[in-house]
Amino acid sequence: MPVSEFDIIKQYFDRQHPQREGISLGIGDDAALIKSHAGQTLAISIDTLNEGIHFPVNTSAEDIAYKALVVNLSDMAAMGATPVWFTLALSLPEPSTNWLEAFANSLFEIADKYNVTLVGGDTTRGPLSITIQIAGQLNNEQAMLRSGAHVGDQIYVTGTLGDAALALALKNQDASNSNETTYLFSRLNRPIPRVEIGQAINSIASACIDISDGLFADLGHILKLSNVGAQVKLYQLPLSTQAQTLLLKHTELYDTVIKGGDDYELCFCIPKDKQAQLETLSSNFECNITHIGEITDSKELQCLDESGNLVSDFIQGFDHFVKQQ
Questions:
Q1: What is the pTM of this model?
Q2: Residues 56 and 99 in one domain
Q3: The pLDDT value given to residue 37
């Protein structure tokens, strides 16, 4: 017996937990009803993940659901917002009950972890594609923007960079079954949204962005909107021990690692007089925070090697409408 669109919604996605305060009506009508609160601003973002572009064709339903929500949670982290609700638009070639069960369970597992509620959406037949819109709350419009960096600010990143890009680069090679690549693929399929860190640094960071298209591309957005430049110390970029191990065998992939996207770590700027506050806050963080450079008045993104020499041979990062080499 065919499964209808409404059957899919009722059986797999009409789960009213967690029920956030302020949600008057969730799934089941023509629109959700959300109450606004005085003194609070909504931060809203939307992301689409397409099979074969944002995740490999054979990626599990669990990993697809996890990442689809996490990339949106990462946007909230970059703004310093508290995520509160999201909507889901799901396009499926065929409504497989096993796939839907696995997808929905994983989606609600990560939603419960970050206390964010699914309030509506849409399902349709078509190529596998997932679009999630998310909303987060900010107190008194206090958000970290890309446009706030100033000359002299110090540049930091969370976690490690390049794990996801290296996983993709090695997916068709013999090393794909090693312990190192197993870890790298976990980083590709299940990045960690730095929501708590974003909230913690909101009051001291001058600018912030999450790293989805690569460090250079995303830091470049901060520089353009802030009308500043930057010097980044390539030798300071944090790499996981697994990435370092594999790079000993695949030295040709170093550029891929330092330029690659899908990290969903935070890149942010801190005024010099607030660095001590960052050090105090960072003791509570679950990941490392690494200083990688400084905002300058050059209007350019410059990279330095260990000798202080400029390194000019790098690409800007991933662009959906530029053919990738």
A1: 0.87
A2: yes
A3: 73
